[in-house]
Amino acid sequence: MDTRRVLLDAKGLTKTYRVGGHKLEVLKGVDMQVREGEILAILGTSGCGKSTLLHVLGWLDSADEGRIVFDGTDRSTLGASERAHLRNSVMGFVFQFYHLLPELTALENVLMPSMIQHGPLAWRKQKKVTTQRAQALLALVGLTERSTHRPRELSGGERQRVAIARALQNQPRFLFCDEPTGNLDGATAEDVRRLLWGLNEKQGQTMVIVTHDAK
């Protein structure tokens, strides 16, 4: 019996879209739990609702019905600003297409969650500590020498590693990954998979990973 604490508890999640006047049921009463330190993979073909489920679980989108409790906090009890603050503080996100800001360096991209969390004025007091953490994360993903490069100067695998470092900047309790290797070639995808699994093995990082790849 797994005695680890339940960190994410979802019950009865439904989500329906209207397409061309027709209803498209994407989520149909989904129940799931994720325990602290666990990796949970959501497998399925394109268009089956994997990303929708991930976005709902990570509070980026809302379910039509159902309940989500994260670490004892029921999503329905929070206002929009409270949800945004909690999401930025304790959740990290990695997407298939990186979503790095093109005008910023790798280091500046990694620093963005800290700047958002603290706000421009308060962040100045935290700048030294948060910059040291960002540099340490870039070292963790093997990009110390690329910290001053902008996204256009990085390969796809390097961009994804920057995105992973950025997702870890605020020391999230939970990491959500939406097809993190879907835009990479085979060898680079394997490098990213090893990096993610290493985070779980060495740091106990809790993750939900959406993928169509059973590897």
Q: Can you give a write-up of this model?
A:
- The chain is α/β, with parallel strands linked by helices.
- It contains six helices and eight strands, in the order βββαββαβαααβαβ.
- The strands form two sheets. The protein has a four-stranded antiparallel β-sheet, with helices on one face. Strands 3-8-7-6 form a four-stranded parallel β-sheet.
- Strand 4 (65-70) and strand 5 (73-74) form a beta hairpin.
- Helix 3 (106-118) crosses helix 4 and helix 4 (120-140) crosses helix 5 (156-168).
- The longest helix is centred in the middle third of the chain and has 21 residues, at 120-140.
- It is globular.
- The protein starts with 5 loop residues before the first strand and ends with a strand.
- The model has no long low-confidence stretch (mean pLDDT 91).
Determine the fraction of residues in helical runs and give it as a percent range: 25-40%
Mean pLDDT: 91
Largest β-sheet summary: 4 strands, antiparallel
Q: Give the terminus-to-terminus CA distance.
A: 26 Å
Strand content: 25-35%
SS field, number of helical segments: 6
Structural shape: globular
Strand tally is: 8
Rounded to an integer, what's the Rg over CA atoms? 18 Å
In summary, what is this structure?
This protein has six helices and eight strands; from the N terminus they run E-E-E-H-E-E-H-E-H-H-H-E-H-E. With 215 residues, it is an alpha/beta fold. The strands form two sheets. It has a four-stranded antiparallel sheet, with helices on one face. Strands 3-8-7-6 form a four-stranded parallel sheet.
